[in-house]
Design brief:
mainly alpha; single chain
């Protein structure tokens, strides 16, 4: 088998345990949220007038969001996608913590798929904020955890140069990561998100 497709085992110092632990915790939380949202979608299908514990008011309401067309963009509840994707991320995180080094093609594919997931999560947030007029707390948790997983995955892929940057570019990016610039960007994004929600709904 070609080395490009081989799985290797890394020493503990090269496993990026912190980043993969964050991915594991965030993915687990996202999976829990997906399970709850999936159960609610099934309940609403049987009883459109069902009320859930997260239905605080007309603006903070899971059921309002769940009954919008955006909540079933592909013809089934979006939460079902989380039931498919999050166990994969959890498996990758656990294997990586154990020392498995996935090949470049796999990590690039994972990055591409999670980028699509991130864009989808923020599109749903945009729709909820500007068009649906209500926010779902569980959906917000998925948005936050998706952001965290994306940031950690990107961080690891840059450190390992999975994207194939030139040596000069790679070293520049590593210096930015060492200065925690990516973490500051994530914090800024989450602060802006929280501020927007507070201004409009609280």
């Amino acid at each position: 088998m070609s080395n490009a497709y081989a799985f290797t085992r890394l020493p503990r110092s090269e496993r990026h345990i912190g980043a993969f632990t964050e991915m594991l915790v965030s993915s687990a939380l996202s999976l829990i949220a997906s399970l709850v949202l999936s159960a609610e979608a099934i309940t609403l299908a049987a009883n459109p007038n069902a009320i859930f514990s997260c239905d605080i008011n007309s603006h903070i309401s899971c059921s309002v969001v769940a009954q919008s067309w955006q909540a079933s963009l592909l013809g089934f509840p979006n939460a079902f996608l989380g039931l498919i994707a999050e166990p994969v991320v959890i498996t990758v995180a656990l294997a990586s913590i154990a020392g498995v080094a996935f090949p470049r093609w796999f990590m690039n594919a994972a990055q591409a798929m999670y980028t699509v997931g991130l864009l989808f999560a923020y599109w749903l947030l945009y729709e909820a904020y500007f068009h649906i007029g209500a926010l779902c707390p569980w959906c917000m948790l998925v948005t936050v955890t998706t952001t965290m997983v994306f940031a950690s995955m990107t961080r690891v892929n840059i450190y390992r140069n999975s994207f194939g940057f030139s040596e000069r570019t790679h070293q520049r990016l590593i210096r930015l990561l060492d200065a925690w610039v990516d973490q500051y960007i994530v914090i800024l994004v989450l602060v802006i998100m929280g501020a927007m929600i507070a201004v409009k709904y609280l």
